Amino acid sequence: MPPVTANGADLKAAIQKYIADNKVMMFSKSYCPFCKKIKDLFNSLNLTYTALELDQIENGGDLQNALHELSGQKTVPNVYIKQEHIGGCDDTLKLHADAKLLPMVSESTTTYDYDLIVIGGGSGGLAASKEAGKLGKKVLVCDFVKPSPIGTTWGLGGTCVNVGCIPKKLMHQAALLGHSIDDSRKFGWEVSEGVKHNWNTMKDAIQGHIGSLNWGYRVALRDKDVKYENAYAEFVDPHTIKTVNRRGKENTATAERFLVAVGMRPRYPDIPGAKEYGITSDDLFSLPYCPGKTLVVGASYVALECAGFLRGVGLDTTVMVRSILLRGFDQQMAEKVGEYMEKGGMKFIRGCVPTKVERLEEGQPGKLRVTGVQDGKEVVWEGNTILFGIGRDAVTEGIHLEKAGVKFNTKNGKVYGNDEEQTNQPHIYAIGDVLEGKLELTPVAIQAGRLLAQRLYGGAKAKTDYVNVPTTVFTPLEYGACGLSEEDAIAKYGEDNIEVYHSNFMPLEWTVPGYDPNDCYAKVICNRQDNERVVGFHVLGPNAGEITQGYGAAMKCGMTKAQLDTTIGIHPTNAEIFTTLDITKGSGEDPTKTGC
Amino acid sequence: MIHFRVECPAHVWLKRLRPDQAPGKIMVVSVKVEGLSAFLEAVEKHKGKTIFALFTGSHDAQGKSWCPDCVSADPVVEECVKGAPEDAVFITCSVGDRATWKDQTNDFRTHDKLKLTSVPTLMRWGTPQRLMEEDCAKSNLVSMLFEED
């Protein structure tokens, strides 16, 4: 037999094709007695099967290695039934002894319109559907954006692309550029003092980029023969959905499996005027006018990021915070994020919640009055725009999960899933923000979607690893984190069992403009019981996202403090601070810089 | 086929397809131009309509194109353009010979509204919707560009 294909990646694809194309697939060796046993079994049951004899093809060894990586099984026979990995000789015999082999092989009597229907065309849904399409499956993606209370809507791609990561990072960049213009004067650029920012120029350019991403997703789906419907899908029964498009046209479709990836939308407080006059991150990035003087309500990362860039493009911005900043994140870091924002002219109203929003004047922007209550006293803010960043809710309410028998958290609408993103209904899966207890991050959803499709249709085994996921908050001074917050590390290991190394640091670039040498801060949390393995990584500084990504990879490899110490820094960078952390929090020594 | 010359100084040709090519349907107006300024004039002339543009390598004296991807795209685009909205204008713009196109400073590559990186490029003018190279020969993608907004 000729070799199956050339390189490793292709080999895996070739194996996956064998698994996908053959209902009963067995990787075998012609002389192997265990393989013969299984062939005899299949023959006695009159089962049609396909056996690939690895000893009779030129690169059988490579293929066996690739198969090992894919299935986690080294030996033959290696049996797959309907793309599900069964295992070796004993596993297959046991399956038969348990009377599960024949039912598994027997044809299902129902035929469905699709192999997979994905509800939600965000990062997770698109990743899963493209992967399933690539593996030859018939896939439908339904994506529909219900307009925000003020009527904002957008195209294919979900929150990240349209009203999340992408526009916020670009607006953050707009803010950083403004800061750089100031710095540049110290570096010799004779920039005139009257430099102004134009909201619409920024907004149009960003929306233009988003438009090309929306189009790119449609092309990618079409290219992989995935059907896309711009329609709202809801379950009718466990295998059927009803879709309604924007013209009100209804359709039904059935599928063998479903993926719920509907994501979340911003929450509004239940106070007068909130929905009538307020906006959220859903509206901000395409707002057709400069929001002017703005009140941001909430201290979620969404709230602080939006407030940060609004202030950064020169707007009078106030953040109204009920209690703590960045709930769920390391609180020492969160407070430092807030302190830096305050230095940059951000106003904070702490311990305060809004009670009503009134419109004083119509316009773009109009004029609003917001009343709040702080320590039992009334607080009044007047300005142009109020933006709510008080949290997000899973949008499962309208999709009638109950008609499909899917269990979900009735409080927050999130769907319960196991470690393979499977719901209580074995043929219905959920990924992304909508999955209860998991991280709300685009790259996590993408990974989960891809791996899920590979497990369902490509014979793969790998599950998404939700541990040590790096992330970054793009506040004016960025905050990158990976692993545990100090609070969580203490809760998990006990205060005596962790060691925290920390240091302030000053970017070299900050010396010339003469900024505060102690705004930036680095901290690693180590488990003393485990070789000082780093269990939490935190950095506050410029480009924290870029720093955190690399250290995130190291943490995946089990980085210890000693390994950090033997790593040689790149000079002069900010990231190098992590190679020279020698002050422990426990020592009480001062981690601040006092100049050279 | 009725050919007639437009009052445009550049080599702008306007072609109306015969009604029998798609019974009962008004056909897309098809325009052929060469060079950037002629293209921009054609766009200006049809302002307000849905404009599709195909940027393609030019043909030599023997009628042969230097751009193989353009050749494979042509029949696909020609077929799919029939599905375009009735008021649409389809401009085919030749970007010149290979040497002209490969010059990294050429107008098509640098013009703010074009920033072409490859030929063929098929686009819905004024939107981010564009297809490039071998994608222009995939009828499922080309028809999506013409038919859905």
Automatic annotation (TrEMBL), chain A:
Domain FAD/NAD(P)-binding: 114-449
Gene Ontology annotations for the cellular component aspect, listed alphabetically: cytosol; mitochondrion
Keyword Transport tagged: no
Highest taxon listed in the record's lineage: Eukaryota
Domain Glutaredoxin: 24-86
UniProt keyword annotations, A-Z: Disulfide bond, FAD, Flavoprotein, NADP, Oxidoreductase, Redox-active center, Selenocysteine
Job description of the protein: Reduces disulfideprotein thioredoxin (Trx) to its dithiol-containing form. Homodimeric flavoprotein involved in the regulation of cellular redox reactions, growth and differentiation. Contains a selenocysteine residue at the C-terminal active site that is essential for catalysis. Also has reductase activity on hydrogen peroxide (H2O2).
Protein's name in the database: Thioredoxin reductase 1, cytoplasmic
Source organism of this protein record: Branchiostoma lanceolatum (Common lancelet)
TrEMBL record, chain B:
Gene3D superfamilies in the cross-refs: Glutaredoxin (3.40.30.10)
Gene Ontology molecular function: any one: protein-disulfide reductase [NAD(P)H] activity
Main location: cytoplasm
One Gene Ontology cellular component annotation held by this UniProt entry: cytosol
UniProtKB keywords: Cytoplasm, Disulfide bond, Redox-active center
Lipid biosynthesis keyword on record: no
Keyword Cytoplasm part of the UniProt annotation: yes
Boundaries of every Thioredoxin domain copy: 35-148
Alphabetized Pfam families for the sequence: TXD17-like_Trx
InterPro entries: Thioredoxin-like_sf, TXNDC17-like, TXNDC17_dom
Location of this chain's protein in the cell: Cytoplasm
PANTHER family xref list: 42-9-9 PROTEIN-RELATED (PTHR12452), THIOREDOXIN DOMAIN-CONTAINING PROTEIN 17 (PTHR12452:SF0)
Family per record: Belongs to the thioredoxin family.
Protein name: Thioredoxin domain-containing protein 17
Originating gene: TXNDC17
